[in-house]
Specification:
Number of strands: 12
Helix content: 40-55%
Strand content: 5-15%
Distance between the termini: 49 Å
Oligomer: single chain
Length: 364
């Protein structure tokens, strides 16, 4: 139960890591610190009066044994930085989280690569993120991202669809579905990878949590690939963290006319390695993990092949535009598009516009 007492202490408002460590050292254990008499808390010299009052108020709200049983029932684990199960790469960064809450399987010796980017991603960006993640997963590497809309979600999807391992680092509790539409995606990640957070279960997705959690995305990863990013974005914060932590930084080139590529293009000017395939990333780590190959899926034939070939990976096309390009009747094209979507060869990108999805090659 010691871990649950320590977790409860981290939930006290204002409790910093250094204060927590000194408090536990003074009393001899997290359990004894949590159960200490009011007088002892005020006289121990570890807490100011406000923090001591916060601790007293917090322990009135929490039944430790009930909390532990609830977390175990819901598959929520907790691991501390001093424990062997704590991800080894994360332990070595500046200001590592002292506690990680998780659902699923924590990473250990996997080669992990972060993929981050814009929430308001273009079709090009989503396709690029998905293709990179699928290629990395097919080669045995794990993919780390933040489960946000846009690039993050596409990266997780690519890894999952390739049968790979992926980690979602949240800016809220691991039991909180955020953004709301990612409930199914987060459930799949729990089954095939891990959801992690330094924020306790039930913690709200507060705006200031997200820039801070980015250091965990980069800290878990050997390198971070930025797919799309504006001049000022959270993805560039993650790239900055990666540089400070001694991680590699990769960037996917984008259009010089696109605001969502301004940040990635600036990273390239500053020395980030340009990547267009998963192989561009994997070649940096060939001594760590051998690259597996996967056969590309066959291209469709007949009218289905004509519609698929007319689709673009970059620019979504409407049914009307496809009619003009292919010359088939609208009902036929609509039916073919439905089949392509069901086969995961195309996707609707808002307003009944469609894009071609990349193949499942490793990108070699």
């Amino acid at each position: 139960m010691e871990r649950y007492y320590q977790a409860a202490l981290t939930m006290v408002p204002g409790m910093r890591n250094a204060v927590l460590n000194s408090l536990v050292a003074f009393f001899g254990s997290a359990r004894l610190a949590w159960m200490a008499a009011r007088r002892d808390l005020f006289l121990c010299g570890c807490l100011d009066d406000g923090l001591a009052n916060n601790l007293l108020a917090q322990r009135e709200k929490i039944d430790i044994h009930k909390m532990a049983a609830d977390w175990e029932t819901r598959g929520i684990g907790v691991v501390f930085a001093q424990e062997a199960a704590f991800p080894p790469g994360l332990r070595k960064i500046f200001d590592p989280p002292q506690v990680l809450y998780y659902r699923g399987r924590l990473p250990q010796d996997e080669l992990l690569v972060g993929i981050v980017g814009a929430r308001r991603a273009s079709a090009y960006g989503r396709n690029a993120a998905k293709a990179l993640a699928a290629g990395l997963a097919a080669a045995g590497a794990g993919v780390v991202s933040g489960a946000a809309r846009g690039i993050d979600s596409a990266a997780h999807e690519g890894a999952l669809e390739a049968g790979g391992y992926t980690v979602a680092v949240l800016g809220c509790g691991v039991d909180v579905v955020y953004p709301p539409e990612n409930g199914r995606l987060l459930a799949r990640i729990t089954e095939q990878g891990a959801i992690v957070s330094e924020y306790w279960p039930g913690g709200d997705p507060l705006p200031h949590h997200f820039p801070v959690r980015n250091r965990i995305i980069s800290g878990l990863s050997r390198g971070v690939a930025v797919v799309e990013a504006a001049e000022k974005s959270g993805s560039l914060i993650t790239a900055d963290w990666a540089l400070e932590q001694g991680r590699d930084v990769f960037a996917v080139p984008g259009s010089i006319f696109s605001a969502t590529s301004a940040g990635t293009n600036r990273l390239l000017k500053q020395g980030a390695k340009p990547v267009t395939t998963a192989a561009d990333i994997l070649e940096e780590y060939v001594a760590v993990r051998a690259v597996k190959t996967r056969q590309p899926r066959p291209e469709p034939a007949g009218d289905e092949g004509r519609v698929w070939a007319a689709l673009s990976c970059d620019e979504p096309l409407s049914v009307e535009e496809l009619i003009m390009r292919v010359g088939l009747p609208a009902p036929v094209i609509t039916y073919i598009l439905l089949q392509l979507v069901l086969k995961d060869m195309a996707a609707e990108f808002g307003g009944q516009r469609y894009v071609r999805l990349p193949g499942r090659e490793t990108g070699e």
